[in-house]
Amino acid sequence: MPIFEYGERELNHLQRRDKVLGSAILKIGMINRDVTPDLFTALVKSILGQQISSAAAKTVWGRLLTGIGKLTPVSVYETPLDTLQQYGMSARKAGYIKGIAAAVLKDDLDLSGLHRMTDQEVIKHLTELKGIGVWTAEMLLIFGLQRPDVVSWGDQGIRRGMMKLYCLENLDREQFEVYRERYSPYGTVASLYLWELAAPK
C-alpha cells in the first residue's frame, strides 16, 4: 500500500514555523499513512468514514471488499442497496456510493479531471454531488490526490489533536485558521501529526 510521502523539507518548515508542533514531530518521528491513488476507491472510503470511528469504518470497508470483490463503479452500481447495507453501512450511505458510481458511469463525474483542479475547485465540484460534503472532499484531497496543504476544520480528530498540542480547552474557527496558515504550505503533514496526537493511547 502506498503511503503519503513527505520528508525533511516539510518537517523543517513545520519545525521552524511552530516550535510546539516541532517538538511533537521530533518525539513522534515519521508517520506512515496509507493513501489510495484510485480516486473512486478513495471517494467511497471517505463516504463510508463519514461520522463514524476509524475502527468502524475499517470494519465496513473490509466487509464491502469481501462481499463485492473488485471495487469499481460498475460493481457498486450493480450491487443492490439492501446488499450494501448488509455490509454495515446505512441506507443513506449505500445510496450515496451508488449515486457516485452512477455519476462516474454517466460521465457526470470525471475523477481523472480532479488532478487538474485546485483544492478549492475539487471541493466545489465534489460537494455538488449528493452525499459529499466539505470533509469528504478534503479527505479525498489528502488520501486520494495527496495534496500537500489540507487541514480540515470539519475533522474532529484534527481539532482534538490541535487542542491537545496547544493545551486548549476550546478551539474556535479563528484560532484554527491561525494555526492552519502557520502550517502552510505543508498543512497535510501537520494533519498527520495532529491525528497521531488525537489517537487514543
Brief synopsis:
The chain is mainly alpha-helical and 201 residues long.
List keywords for this structure.
201 residues, 0% strand, globular, mainly alpha
Count of individual beta strands? 0
The best one-word shape is globular
How far apart the termini lie comes to 25 Å
Q: Treating each run of at least 4 consecutive H or I residues as one helix, how many helices?
A: 12
Classification by helices and strands: mainly alpha
Let me know the average pLDDT.
Answer: 95
SSE order in H/E notation? HHHHHHHHHHHH
Runs with pLDDT <50, length 5+? none
Give an account of the 3D structure:
The chain has helices at 8-17, 19-28, 39-48, 54-68, 73-77, 81-86, 91-105, 119-126, 134-143, 156-165, 173-183, 187-198. It has 201 residues and is mainly α. It is globular and about 50 Å long. It starts with 7 loop residues before the first helix and ends with a helix. The model has no long low-confidence stretch (mean pLDDT 95).
Outline the fold blueprint.
Blueprint: H1 8-17, H2 19-28, H3 39-48, H4 54-68, H5 73-77, H6 81-86, H7 91-105, H8 119-126, H9 134-143, H10 156-165, H11 173-183, H12 187-198
Helix pairs in contact: 1-2, 2-12, 3-7, 3-9, 8-9, 10-12
